[in-house]
Write a structure and sequence with these properties.
By secondary structure, the protein is of the alpha+beta class. The chain is built from 11 helices and 21 strands. The strands form 6 sheets. Strands 6, 12, 14, 15, 16, 17, 18 and 19 form an 8-stranded mixed beta sheet that branches. Helix 4 runs antiparallel to helix 5 and helix 4 crosses helix 6. It is globular and about 70 Å long.
Length: about 425
């Protein structure tokens, strides 16, 4: 059914830069949804774009079946950011109805998880909004491409062509990053590459804690609780994984199963980082996370031109003993005045001391935003191979001893096409 409520009133799009503090009413176990939406609303690049008059009207006049969730989200933005009749809080019933129709997981009054909502919201918004620019309306775009797996630049170029062909939305430009996976066969030492696009990074805190323990890193905070550092989470994410025994991988060069090692590398990062701090099923692992307001990830990326400097934009905290119960609250740096506020459903209050408040607790999801307005290199016309290969030795040193002296090895040819074994 086409909604005409918005069309019957005059919308002043020039009011998008006003400092408004609007809560979201809990319409039936929707604290997870409200906390998530407040974090997205305060990502100014996204809100400004969707509340541009031409973009808003294009979405609002589109087919409900094809662009239903985008329309519902834009209507919510209009109410929260522009509607003078909304003074203190808004009930997001339209958004709840539409997303429940799109995915049964969000139906009824069952307790849900912000992570699941973020995954689904970004995927569907990206698909719907990309249709305005894509000539072919495929299903959700493939997120990985494998061609001649020993030729790095060929794989990367084909991956980017395939991805950008069907992902042209503001969501893709702001949230997607490139994950590079290097796989080394321990039999023939062939190095294969794969690239995929993701919009969430998830860190298993118990494994990070055990890794920190093995490195003799500080593990207790000022409150006497277990604690890990966010940068250690990134370090652990890039550790090699070994595949042996029943988990051997098939090697096309050896024509059989072989022991192998794989390493995940953050090739490039997006303007908005969404980080999930996983405490295990039912929040079984009780651990704080030391996370900074300003985050520098230069040491963790493989493409020098990528974004790597960030500032904290939002935090979702989960209060309660179980992952499927309790309460979700958002803390956001306001997109206009840059002050920190606590968004607890319909109630919005200013955070007077974030250092001793939410930044000293147990966050569940972190939102970081670029501080220098850099664009996503995933959409650059050209990827400079020289800005990749300078870092290749650093990343391969710890994946396999065979690559310890990569540049000096006689049986490796290092060129602009990647690494080929001779």
């Amino acid at each position: 059914m086409q909604s005409n409520q918005i069309k019957q009133q005059v919308i002043n799009f020039n009011n998008v830069n006003r400092e408004r503090l609007i809560g979201l009413e809990n319409v039936g176990a929707t604290c997870y949804m409200n906390a998530t939406l407040q974090c997205f609303i305060n990502i100014n690049s996204l809100t400004q774009y969707l509340l541009t008059e031409s973009v808003y009207k294009q979405i609002d006049n589109s087919d409900d079946d094809l662009y239903g969730l985008s329309k519902a989200y834009c209507h919510l933005l209009e109410k929260v950011c522009l509607d003078d009749n909304i003074k203190y809080y808004y009930a997001p019933r339209e958004f709840k109805r539409v997303i429940s129709e799109k995915n049964p997981l969000f139906q009824g009054i069952n307790a849900n998880d912000s992570k699941d909502l973020i995954n689904f919201l970004l995927e569907v918004l990206n698909y719907e909004l990309s249709q305005f620019y894509c000539s072919k309306k495929d299903n959700y775009a493939k997120n990985s491409v494998m061609m001649n797996p020993t030729n790095m630049m060929l794989i990367l170029d084909n991956f980017r062509i395939e991805f950008t062909k069907n992902n042209k939305s503001i969501i893709a430009q702001n949230f997607f990053f490139i994950l590079q996976t290097n796989t080394v066969c321990n039999g023939c030492h062939m190095l294969k590459y794969n690239f995929q696009s993701l919009f969430l990074l998830e860190f298993p805190l118990e494994l990070v804690y055990n890794y920190s323990l093995s490195k003799n890193l500080p593990l207790i905070n000022n409150q006497g609780k277990k604690c890990v550092n966010l940068l250690t989470c990134f370090e652990h994410y890039g550790l090699p994984s070994k595949f042996t025994g029943e988990n051997q991988l098939y090697c096309n060069n050896c024509k059989g199963l072989r022991d192998a090692e794989c390493k995940n590398i953050l090739f490039s990062l997006p303007p908005v980082l969404v980080l999930i701090l996983n405490r295990g099923k039912g929040k079984s692992f009780d651990c704080d996370v030391d996370f900074p307001e300003f985050l520098n990830l230069q040491n963790f990326i493989n493409y020098k031109k990528s974004i790597y400097e960030y500032r904290l934009r939002g935090v979702i905290s989960h209060l309660g003993e179980s992952g499927m119960s309790g309460h979700f609250i958002a803390y956001c740096r306001h997109r206009i005045n840059n002050k920190w506020y606590c968004y607890n459903d319909a109630t919005v209050t200013e955070c007077q001391d974030q250092k001793n408040g939410f930044m000293n607790g147990t966050p569940y999801i972190l939102f970081y935003e670029t501080i220098n307005n850099q664009s996503n290199v995933l959409f650059d016309n050209v990827i400079d191979a020289n800005l990749i290969l300078d870092n290749m030795n650093k990343f391969n040193n710890d994946i396999n001893p065979f690559f310890n002296n990569l540049n000096q090895a006689n049986n490796i040819n290092l060129n602009n096409n990647g690494i080929n074994l001779i």
